[in-house]
Amino acid sequence: MLTTALPLAAAAPAMKNMESDRLLCVVRNCGGWLCSHAARHLRREPLPDRPLVIAAVAMATGCAAPQVVSLSTVAWWGGAATALAAWAILTRQRCPIAAAAWLASGIFAGAAGWSTARGTLFASDDLAWSLTESARPVAIEGVVVESPRRLARPAPDPFRDAEPQDAAQLPCSECVVAVRSVRDGPSWRAASGRAAVVIEHRGRAAEPDFPAGCRVRVVGRALRPSPPLNPGEFDFQDRARSLRCLSIVRVRAAGGMSVIDAPPPWSFGAIVDRARRHGAEMLRDHLGPRQAPLAAALLLGSRESLPREESLEYLVTGTIHILSISGLHVGLLSVALFRGCRLLALPRAWSSLAVAGCIGLYMLLVRAETPVVRATLLVWLGCLGAAVGRRAVAVNSLAVAAIVVLALNPQELFRTGTQLSFLSTGVLVGASAVLSSRGVDDPIERLIERSRSPWEQRLRRVGSHAWELFFTGAAVWAVTAPIVAARFHLFSPIGLILNPLIAPLVAVAMGWGFLCLIAATVSHGLASACGWACDGTLRCINAIVSWAAGLPGGFWWVAGLPGWWVAGWYIILAVALFAFPRDRLLRVGSWICLVAAWCGIGLCAGGVARVVGGGPPALRMVVAAMGHGCGIVVRSPMGRCLVYDAGRLGAVGAARRGMAAVLWTEGVSRIDTLVVSHADTDHFNAVPALFERFWVGEVVVTRAFLGNQSPAVVKLLHRARAAGIPVRVVQAGDSFPLDDCCRLRVLHPHASSSSAAIDDNETSLVLAVESAGRRLLLTGDLEGQSLKRFVASEPGACDVLIAPHHGSRTSLPADIARVTRADWVIISGPGTSGWGEVRQAYATARSDGRYATVVKTGCDGKSGGAVAVMLTAGSVRVAQFSAGSWRDVLPARACEGLLPRDDVDTAASIQAASDPATESGRVRAQPAAIRSS
């Protein structure tokens, strides 16, 4: 046995070496097979030289760099000067690759410095420095940059508070004024900056006439745009900064704005402005009242007068691009001009010059928006190439357009319209290259084509054009769909069919519209005939879009896509375009596999993040910043959603935007329970929009709300029935689960409180949300005798109290704080003149020596917005949305100024000496975690 064991023991290392060598050989073979298989699908031919594309990419990256790296303008430009110096030295030393790298670095750093300067540096005498986010009286003098544009008047809406003095319902015009001086006491001092002036038209006042270039005096109330108060909301302040128009002045009537000096007769801006206004008047005269605003948007870029409902239909069907002047409009116009020059037998150089001049004038006529500037630059480069007998390379032309646009305003990089414009153009360039390579090269195929009858050839040609139109439209839709879903929360598959269908109609409508404008200077009858044809075409477009907007499944509102997924999608597209050979790019299967793979990665990553990154089950509540209003979103530990009220006083549009933004940011696409506390519109005028954009499981109301006969309540209940949403009527004592870990208890009103003599506020639905021993108390606008009886009934303690009636003095702050013993009190509203007194009452009313932390949706003297509360069995964490991010709120013992110093120190010593496991009145739990803001 020993003699046999020894050879086996000696052979064991050799056997292990053989197995490892075999495994290594298998790995090498597999790796070689994978490399060879991948090499067959990768590009082998070198990429063409496109230096302008590299410069445009470096410039765009530099414009985005300040969003990641915070450096001063001097530091960026110092780096750019250093890089350019290195480029010059290396160029002399004949090191082209290193010199090109340093040149790209110099472009990058220079663009970053320019972006920082444009976004953060403003003159010290800019009007905005003397303003706040609250309106104050102001008198300014300046020069009109853009003449007043009539804004669309909101349609009658029962969900809007119909007050005669409500400025939101008055017809308004808007213009831009370059500020020259501002009134400072009895004298005037020099000032600068731009101001957006909104003029209200009260009574039967005539339309204001302030042409561009005239000097005016404006007396009104001015403020700065406010930052977003809710996560996911549009940042109007950032938009104003990118346009360098930081002030808003609202004038009560046209009399508050007067002309000091008329514009010079040779003012080019005034001439263009008069031509634009004259064109809009001609369209109003020769088209129907409903189609004239659409024609003005289609031909002159004036979208302000379009009704909101009509614009929404174009938005949800993915056809909103035809309402703003873009590359489609400029391209159609340039093609028509080229064909007109050909009919007139003009030489090529003169034709190019004429087309370039006409397109340039048209760009100024429609206010030179970024898509128009981009399209105009492409036309100019094409005309230049035609004039010198060279064909312009489309990719290089697009790169030149990007460089010019970013040089004019680096902040355009972050505008969704600019991104979609360049993306769509890039896709069209690629699609045209693909379609041009599919020509018939086989002589037999050409012979067969010639043997067909003329009608068959014509039909085949029409079918080929239709296929090309659908192919390019589908390519644009597929590439832009992620960014549309991320920014607009829309997924519109109907756009795949609709855009190719209405594109020819848009061309026809533009043709008749331009003929109407031209004929108006010659013959009124001929202009009316052209206007009638344009009106009929626009009616067809409107009918098709309205029909498509009503199709079930034509579009879906979505919560949005993660930023990393959207960015990765476009990175993968760029890599595929550079890495795949031409034959692979022409295969539809390649792109289907790419899309499927990236969608699978996104789904897997989302699932892994929920499993791995999720913390302990928690009850989460977000109190949206709705101004004077209320909107509360509660997520249960198992992910079900409760919405308690959704409304705002007067500003219906702002209420809809705010609530939808909060829900989408929270990843909500389904509202399981929607509670309307009472029949005041500032608590439910955003609910109809939630019916349209989210799936709603049920609506919970009181019997008093159900019996209310106001138009807003009647229409809300009608819309709920039309949407098939059940309505549950509750009263005090009712209890039902939100899910297995969360229960809802109705504490008010009682059956006897539904009398018609009681005010709506007194019938507010008071709801307790309980989970894992924690309790939220949502009180609506409860006040008066009902609130006194509610306090006397001892409703029990809670962790978080939503103060009744937006924290007003009539909400009995001391009494309700004493009986609920809340650690946190949240006020949904901007606060009133007695805010300090109310805050002190809520904070100090408890009789157990503890102090409540009082937070409202909007801080004193600084920006602040929505409030988020995260409750687990062991802690309560509160954060407030401020400056674009969530910041933790300190508990009361760390808040300076809320209480006298002795009281703060006493409270801190009491809580520090307490037992680590404290009795909160709701649950035996660990002390709340303290997080630094």
Protein model, in words:
The chain is α/β, with parallel strands linked by helices and 933 residues long. It folds into 5 domains: 51-120; 127-263, OB fold (Dihydrolipoamide Acetyltransferase, E2P), CATH 2.40.50.140; 282-437 and 445-561, no CATH class; 564-612; 619-925, Ribonuclease Z/Hydroxyacylglutathione hydrolase-like (Metallo-beta-lactamase, Chain A, 4-Layer Sandwich). It is built from 28 helices and 29 strands. Strand 28 (918-919) and strand 29 form a beta hairpin. The longest helix is centred in the first third of the chain and has 39 residues, at 2-40.
Helical content stands at 40-55%
| Global Rg | 33 Å
Biggest beta sheet summary? 9 strands, mixed
CATH topology of the largest domain: Metallo-beta-lactamase, Chain A
* Multimeric organization: single chain
Q: What is the number of helices?
A: 28
So, CATH architecture of the largest domain?
A: 4-Layer Sandwich
Fourth CATH level, the homologous superfamily of the largest domain: Ribonuclease Z/Hydroxyacylglutathione hydrolase-like
CATH class label of the largest domain = Alpha Beta
Straight-line distance between termini: 76 Å
- Mean pLDDT score: 82
How many separate structural domains? 5
* Low-pLDDT windows of residues: 1-12, 162-168, 894-933
Largest sheet, order of strands side by side? 17-16-14-12-11-10-25-26-27
The rough form would be described as globular
Secondary-structure-based class equals alpha/beta
> Which range does the strand content fall in?
15-25%
Number of strands: 29
